[in-house]
Structure prediction request, 257 residues.
Amino acid sequence: MAALAAAGPLLAQERVPPAERASGQDLIYGGQFSAANLYFSRLAEAYPKDPVGPTLAASALIWWGKAREEDAFLADSIDALLLDGAARAQAVIDSAADDSTRARGYFWLGTAIGYRARQAELLGKWWRAAREAGRMRSALERALAYDSTRVDCLLGLAVYEYGLARAGALARLVARIIGLGGGDADRAMEMFRRVVSEGDVARTEGRWIYANALLREGERGDASLREEGLRMVMQLADEYPENPIFRRLVGWPADQP
Prediction:
C-alpha cells in the first residue's frame, strides 16, 4: 500500500495538469503566439513523457504562421515538435495500463499527426498530407473505441470528413488512390457541433474551424450558414480581441504579429 501511495504523485507529475494546458491555450487564442510557444516548450521539459507540451508548442507556431500569413513559417521547427509529440503519445499508448490512458495517448497521437497533415497540405505535399490524414483518422477512431466520451476526437474526424467532401480535384484523386474515401460534409458539420458544445481541449479551436466551414458552406449558396459563421467569428473576436486571425476575418484592423 505504501508503494502505491508513493506512485500516485509520481504518475500525476507525468501529465500536464488540465489547468496548465488550458492556460497555455488561452495564450494561443489570445494572440500571444510567441509566449504560448515558450510556455508549452517549458511544459515539454517539465513533463518529458507527456505529448501535450511539444504538440501544443507546435500549435502555437502554426497559429503564429497563420497570423503572419506565411505558410512555411518555422516549418522545420513545427515538424520536429510534432514528431516529438507523436513519439511521446505512442509511448503513452505502449505503456498504458488502462483504456482511459490508451484513449488519451491515441487522442494526442491523432492530434500531432493531424497537425502534420495540415502542414503537408499547406505546403502542397498532397501525398504526405493524405497519408497523415489516414493515420490521424485511425488514431482518433481508436481513441473513441477505448473511450467513447472523448468528444475532442471528433474535431480531427470532422476536419477529415469535411476536407475530403470539399477537396479539389487533385486532392480527391490522391484520396481515392490511397483509399481515404469521399467524405461526408453533413456528418462533419454534426461532429463540429458536438465539439463546440461538448469539447474540452478542442472546443475553441473547434469553434474557429467550424465557423470557417460555415462560411465556406455559405459561399455555396446558404446565406443562413454564412451568417451563423460570421456570428461565431465575431464572438471569438470579442472574446480574444488581440488575436489578429479573428480580427482579420471580421474586417477589424489586425497588426502584424
Notes: The chain has 13 helices and no strands. The two ends are 53 Å apart (CA to CA). The chain has one domain: 18-249. Residues 99-122 form the longest helix (24 residues).
